[in-house]
Amino acid sequence: METSDKCEPEVVCWRDGALDGACLASARYGNHKFDRHLHDELVIVMTEAGAGQCHTRAGSEIAGPGSVLVFGPGEYHSGEVWEGREWIYRAIYLDMEGLGALSAVFSPDARADKPLLIPPGLYQDPHLAGLLVKAHASLDEQGSVSLMERQANWWAAMGMLVGRYGRSGEEPVEPRREARKMEQVREYVAANYERDISVDELAELVGLSRYYLTRAFCKAFGLPPHAYATQVRLLAAKRMLAAGHNAATAAAAVGFYDQSHLNRLFKRAYGITPGTYAALKPGH
């Protein structure tokens, strides 16, 4: 397990072979602000000391000890260390494989394309937070906890989380025509993020004016198309860095102007540089 340089926030990422689709992290931040960004996993954050203030489309909330903060995949958010002091937390990142594993255990009737859901939000639940922290700590890469105990702690914590707050995947209602068009635009951007796509191209795709398209997309997803494209590029860069590529290669591959452009946006979104993130070996 490797940590970042002392002048940077202290962040550690690792995976445990006992878990499916889960990446674990522990972090300590001083006076720091996180630019608006998103994750492609379900993110579960347990504060151990200090506090962080997080902003989503639903409003602003302060996550302190005894709370569990959940962000949904694709949920646009920002935040900062509360009052510029310190925020020490543990986090769990569950991708679709991880959510599928939870569904198989706790909601076996759930469809593969509609796995178990944990609604985003801040849960003031000291008992659950304590159980999640215990499970997370037992999964520490340098720890000596047996496989059986690690798995027991994990499933006990996940069982309480799902039992108290989980929902089965719901059938969506028939989307309105505009919502279908915005989803079409989002899928198109996600499939073509390496290119410098114009708003004109997107407007022509769905038969809307440039102004109306931008306003409708922002209303649907909380950010304009160009900002969404930037987030998709950052996620793609994270995957490449985790796979062992260097920052320059990742920047060129995902459509950033150059490595400095990636460095600047990555640091503002995630609090660490691409080089530091790659050194943490989050894909291992």
UniProtKB/TrEMBL annotation:
Q: Does the keyword DNA-binding apply?
A: yes
One of the record's GO molecular function terms:
sequence-specific DNA binding
Domain named HTH araC/xylS-type: residues: 183-280
Which terms are listed as keywords in the entry?
DNA-binding, Transcription, Transcription regulation
- What InterPro entries is this protein classified in? AraC-bd (IPR003313), AraC_XylS_family_regulators (IPR050204), Homeodomain-like_sf (IPR009057), HTH-like (IPR037923), HTH_AraC (IPR018060)
Protein known as: DNA-binding domain-containing protein, AraC-type
